[in-house]
Design a protein that fits this description.
Elements: E1 8-9, H1 14-22, E2 48-49, E3 53-64, E4 70-83, H2 90-93, H3 100-106, E5 113-116, E6 132-136, H4 137-140, H5 148-152
Antiparallel strand pairs: 1-4, 2-3, 3-4, 4-6, 5-6
């Protein structure tokens, strides 16, 4: 069983402009190039976003088309909790801990799930904005031979 659902191309940016225009309160001009601060810059449309945090499905680049467009696949059971404030160190995550149960409820997550984060490039951090990963262990267990680490490699 393949651990990824069917990929789709992220070439249509229409949703990004519409998302930004319909959510002006989510614009962070101090960090315009940071997807964590500006949720319309993620590779996939956020599942949830407000002034406190965004929730995004974990995805992974799986291919490139002949015209150099990137092709992504959703990683089942993997979600990213991203604080909206520009958060670049672990201390910055502390105020968001109390919001994690609400995020799990929005995602309809029930135990068992893991909550983890990568801190630093060597640990696999690719987004320069601290964030948590929700990992639905029930879904992950459906993919024998795939550990959390193999699913996270290259995930964004």
């Amino acid at each position: 069983m393949d651990p990824y659902v069917a990929p789709w191309q992220v070439t249509d940016t229409t949703w990004r402009q519409a998302f930004r225009e319909s959510n002006p309160e989510l614009v962070n001009d101090e960090h315009p190039d940071c997807p964590g601060c500006n949720p319309w810059q993620f590779n996939v449309r956020p599942l949830f976003a407000d002034e406190r945090f965004s929730l995004v499905a974990g995805c992974k680049q799986v291919d490139t088309t002949p015209d150099s467009s990137e092709v992504y696949a959703i990683i089942p059971g993997l979600f990213v909790f991203v604080p909206r404030a520009h958060t670049i160190d672990l201390a910055g995550l502390a105020p968001y801990m109390s919001l994690l149960p609400e995020a799990a409820e929005i995602l309809h997550l029930e135990a068992p799930y893991s909550l983890t984060f990568n801190y630093g490039i060597v640990a696999g951090q690719t987004l320069a904005h601290e964030h948590f990963w929700f990992v639905n262990r029930r879904v992950l267990s459906a993919y024998p031979g795939h550990s959390l680490a193999t699913l996270l490699i290259g995930a964004v």
